[in-house]
Amino acid sequence: MPSAPKGQLAMQTVAIERDANPGGSMFGGWVLAQMDMAGAAHAFGIAQQRIVTVSADKIRFFRPLIIGQEVHLYTDTVSIGSSSIAVNVNVWHVEQNAGNKQFFNIAEGIFTFVALDDKGRPDKTMKDRIE
């Protein structure tokens, strides 16, 4: 488990009550949705065209996320294929005490996105255009 965020800050939000289970922890599906959105923003920034999620792999949850906690999602590129972009997404809870930030790793996973052409098919020319 990483001890500090790496990559770029892609998104931040606050865990709110409507997305929590009766015990006060956020549903795993909510966390996955945030990870998918952060990864998609990262992949779109590279592809500059319509993308879709094709897989979410190696998802690991390390600790619960509690209502009211600040959440930061960091992303970095794992690989770029002819039409696909794999993105590592890390979720961190951030606490600020007396101006010092303390990070707690919540979850991580690798999301793969595919760039689509105008007809909705994988765009095999994406990699050539971004290099």
Q: Any key phrases for this structure?
A:
45% strand; 2 helices; Thiol Ester Dehydrase, Chain A; 131 residues; alpha+beta
List the total number of helices. 2
Strand content: over 45%
The share of residues in helices is 10-25%
Largest sheet: 5 strands, antiparallel
Distance between the termini: 32 Å
Overall CATH class: Alpha Beta
The structural class is alpha+beta
Secondary-structure arrangement, i.e. CATH architecture? Roll
Mean pLDDT: 93
Shape: elongated
Strand order of the largest sheet: 1-3-4-5-2
Over all CA atoms, what is the radius of gyration? 16 Å
Q: What's the number of extended β-strand segments?
A: 5
Q: Sketch the topology as an H/E string, one letter per element.
A: EHEEEEH
Low-pLDDT segments: none
| CATH fold category name | Thiol Ester Dehydrase, Chain A
**CATH homologous superfamily classification:** Hotdog Thioesterase
Number of individual domains: 1
Assembly state of the chains shown? single chain
